[in-house]
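Need fresh eyes. Consider my entry:
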Amino acid sequence: MALSSFDIDAPQWDQSTFMGRLKHFFNITDWRTAALPDSRLDEAKVLVEHCRSGFVPPGTTEEQLHYAKKLYDSAFHPDTGDRMNLIGRMSFQVPGGMAITGFMLQFYRTVPAVVFWQWVNQSFNALVNYTNRNAASPITPKQIGVAYFTATSTALATAVGLNLYTKKAPPLVARWVPFVAVASANCVNIPMMRQQEILNGISVTDENGNNLGHSTRAAVKGITQVVVSRITMAAPGMIILPIIMQRMEKYKFMQVRPSFSMAVSKLEPELRASIVSQYGDAVQRVYFNKGL
């Protein structure tokens, strides 16, 4: 196939099938692309734009074109073509979201810890939602501020309220508080951050990409699906992991043991002789702090 006629915007996998869509989104959300320098991403953008114009540099392979499109889709906004900030990219969701989720699941016992990590999480979510908004529907700084404040307040109120309510509940129930707070906040954060799409509608096209007008119903449906998918994405780690940890903590190897022991017979001859001369056979093992 002549690469000059290569359609770089055509999906690499069949988008009419679930597996095709799954491979596509795994491809553009690959966390490794978040570690690449801006210069490498800009090179990919130039190659994609050249291919769109019908010019492919000599020696370029089809594999290189697919990889350039992968980098382009992972780092540049589909509406504006501008490079997105690193933290807001979907490719940063795995390392960034995983770290924050871990902290929320670990530090859930005290109100200050709950407040701090819910604030960090909602700040992260607000940036992700703003970065991945439909840029054809502009949002003002005031609207961004209101959306951020509302979502953060919802998450904090839910988390702190449930944290206090579940003080006497089983430990597992308390471990699920972060998930409920995250789910509640997502129901507020995403629609608020993308409110202009709901109010003014988003562009709808035919299968060939020709603009047919603006639809508020399409915006509502799209945003609803985003909310559901974000909550679903958080569910496995925030619901299943606490159950696993709750059961594993019953085993000795999972319990915190800063002090370890060692048989006296394993010690240095001088120390062993000193212990035996003072205590005889009364001391069989010695204990020490291994550190953390």
